[in-house]
Amino acid sequence: MASVALKSVSKQYGSKLVVEEFDLEVKDGEFIVLLGPSGCGKTTTLRMIAGLESLSSGELFFGEKPVNDIPPEDRNVGMVFQNYALYPHMSVFDNLVFGLRSRRVPKAQAAKAVSKVAKLLEIEHVLTHKPRELSGGQRQRVALGRAIVREPSVFLMDEPLSNLDANLRERMRIELAQLHARLGITTFYVTHDQGEALTLSDRIVIMDQGKVRQIGTSEEVYSKPNDTFVARFIGSPGMNLWNLEWTDGPDSILAGESVQVPTLLRSAMSRIGKVVTIGVRPEHLFLSSSGTGDVVVCLDVLAIERLGSHVQLNGVLTGNPSLTVVAKLDAGVNYRRGEKICLYAKPESVYLFDPLTERRVEVFGQ
Amino acid sequence: MITGTKKNSLGSLELDLVTNGISPKPKITSPKELLRVLKDRLVAYGLMFPALAVFVVFFYIPAAYLIYISFYHWGILSSATTYVGLKNFDILFAQPLFWHSLLTSLYYTVVMIPATVLLALAIAMLLRDGLNAKRGGLWRGAVFLPHVTPVVATSIVWVWIFNPRFGLANFILTSLHLPALGWLESQQWALPAVMIDSLWHSLGLYVIIFLAGMANVPKELLEVARLDGAKRHRVFYRIIWPLISPTTFFVVVLATVNSWQAFSQIYTMTGGPHGGAGGPAFATTTDALLVYQTAFTYLHFSLAAAMSLILFLIILTLTAMQKWISDRVVFYR
Ligand SMILES: Nc1ncnc2c1ncn2[C@@H]1O[C@H](COP(=O)(O)OP(=O)(O)OP(=O)(O)O)[C@@H](O)[C@H]1O
Ligand SMILES: [Mg+2]
């Protein structure tokens, strides 16, 4: 087991910068999730940690030891690929024992380790099967087992659940969390499913186009997004963001024609400028006001999606048809297309961003 | 309107599939339909005819005729043929030269198969690692080039290379302080010289086949094996070698057939154009060469036919044996 540190790690393919100045210190046993849209460099980062890809610049440490020049076979990392990459010509047992035998673990000891892992992952009854005779979930477990059986110091997983159906994915997600709690191996986990990210992670690294946008716990990235990208990316659906010009009134600020903001946000807004980006999460919009000083958002309803537990309202700001609004409301509301309504949000659930830098500005800070 | 035409075109597509023989007996409901079906069949056979005709005229008929005359006494000048039963075979089996030619062919094949597989695989492995390199294409081209050169022409070059007095082969040997060899003039080294020529000429093809087979091994498997701590040689013999076994089997079969049939390079290198092929002292007289000489030098066509039949049966048996073995060891995904 080991702590891992990436120090301004970059990867370049030709002239294309794929990972840029990645800085991260991971504690021993921590579960790190790399989250980001397709092509943002998650897999590349993982492959650099594994040693399958060289670093263009920067340094990588396992514990105190720099590993830049150590080949993958000597790094003692376990990796689960998206398509599992099981050895198709070997039985499940041979798949599991291959890594141990490669490292010259004696036969009897290796067999014992395999049967222990097989028991842990409940694949004992398929040990003699070939990978093609297994179900998706079983293959996934074998891939997992192959990576953990030789007790790696770092565990890498590249979207390991993406090939499973929704139910199985949910179940495996819980099992992965339990497994990590039990083994405590430092883990890097790539996904673009934020449900997985939020439940599994100790910390989430949110990436976009090779750049790290934010590193933090799921609580932090949800409630304190660094910038508009993170705000829009986290949450389902993501945060409503509106670029609006504001005018100061006696007891409220009118931003655009349809958004009314309490005056206590004035100092923050004037620090930003004439135009601000206002952000409100869909789940923080309500049908009725809880009192004075609420944010008021008026919109034209365009579509209503009934999703069982709640209703999702899609619309545009009244008078600003280019700015969309999404609201997650309690089930049972009844609106029609084209109707104009106003929703309310508590002032503390409002975010302000600088439209130029796209970074968040503390509302109640200095 | 639009959906209507779409439906129509889909309908006729289904009909096409049916009339093209996916369903064994198309339902013919009207004379018009019958005409359509007939026309389709006619087109299909029409398209097949040229290739089929070439095969029948130049392959199946001669092959059948060969079997036929191997049981007859048949001369190219005499019109009369007499049935002689197994007499041609009796004559062959009584001939020491016939047995000698079989042994020579066997020797040639037994050396050529492993040499081909090992060398082609080694070159393919080297090229594979350089595949993404800038000049990967150039190297592959260079390796494949000998295969597209005419055997006869390049074999003459090899005759010069193997010239015992001023050839390149002996020059290299003596520079390495090794004894010079008689090569094509020596009973012991004539066949190995031919083998070197044959390898040079045929390896390119086998290398390309191996490269294609290796391209089918998923990259992640090799990566995961390295992460599993396997060194290069272990990755090769535990992952690559088993996964390319269908390719290897194909190469072995192809090399077997090509070795038993090897003719042009032996004929050319051992002085065929001057009438002395197969020497010195029959050291390079393989089965294929003996067939040729029996037929076209000594004009014993029936004997040559019988010999060809035996050659055919040997290759058939070997291939069947290889198939039987491969079904037990080759890994198919
Ligand atoms: N070998 C390579 N050569 C050139 N460009 C590459 C190479 N590998 C990856 N890239 C590029 O690097 C970028 C990041 O790729 P990467 O696979 O890390 O993305 P990802 O975040 O894992 O995406 P996904 O979620 O789709 O798996 C992509 O734009 C990709 O085109
Ligand atoms: Mg990826």
Spans of at least 5 consecutive residues with low confidence of chain A: none
The helix fraction of chain B, in percent, is over 70%
Q: Tally the structural domains of chain B.
A: 1
The share of residues in extended strands of chain B comes to under 5%
Q: In CATH, what is the homologous superfamily of chain B? A: MetI-like
Please bin the fraction of helical residues of chain A: 10-25%
Distance between the termini of chain B: 48 Å
What is the arithmetic mean of pLDDT of chain B? Answer: 83
SSE order of chain A in H/E notation? Answer: EEEHEEEHHHEHEHEEHHEEEHEEEEEEE
Largest beta-sheet characterization of chain A: 10 strands, antiparallel
Q: How much is the radius of gyration of chain A in Å?
A: 25 Å
CATH topology of chain B: MetI-like fold
| Total number of helices of chain B | 14
Q: Would you tell me the overall average pLDDT of chain A?
A: 90
% residues in beta strands of chain A:
25-35%
How many whole angstroms does the radius of gyration of chain B measure? 27 Å
Largest sheet of chain B: 2 strands, antiparallel
Structural class of chain B: mainly alpha
The secondary-structure class of chain A comes to: alpha+beta
- Distance between termini of chain A? 43 Å
Q: What key phrases describe this protein's structure?
A:
heterodimer, A: 366 residues, alpha+beta, 10-stranded antiparallel sheet, 9 helices, 25% helix, B: 333 residues, mainly alpha, MetI-like fold, two-stranded antiparallel sheet, 14 helices, 2 strands, 71% helix, disordered N terminus
Brief summary:
The complex is a heterodimer of chains A (366) and B (333). Chain A has nine helices and 20 strands. Chain A is an alpha+beta fold and 366 residues long.
Description:
The complex is a heterodimer of chains A (366) and B (333). Chain A contains 9 helices and 20 strands. Chain A has 366 residues and is of the alpha+beta class. In chain A, the strands form 3 sheets. In chain A, strands 11, 12, 13, 14, 15, 16, 17, 18, 19 and 20 form a 10-stranded antiparallel β-sheet that branches. In chain A, strands 6-7-8-3-9-10 form a 6-stranded mixed β-sheet, sandwiched between helices. Chain A is elongated and about 80 Å long. Chain B is an all-alpha fold and 333 residues long. Chain B has a single domain (95-329), classed as Orthogonal Bundle (MetI-like fold). A two-stranded antiparallel ribbon of chain B has the order 1-2. Chain B has 14 helices and 2 strands, in the order H-H-E-E-H-H-H-H-H-H-H-H-H-H-H-H. The chains are: A alpha+beta (366), B mainly alpha (333). The interface between A and B is medium-sized, with 25 and 19 residues. The complex binds adenosine-5'-triphosphate and magnesium ion. Residues 42-43, 158 of chain A line the site of magnesium ion.
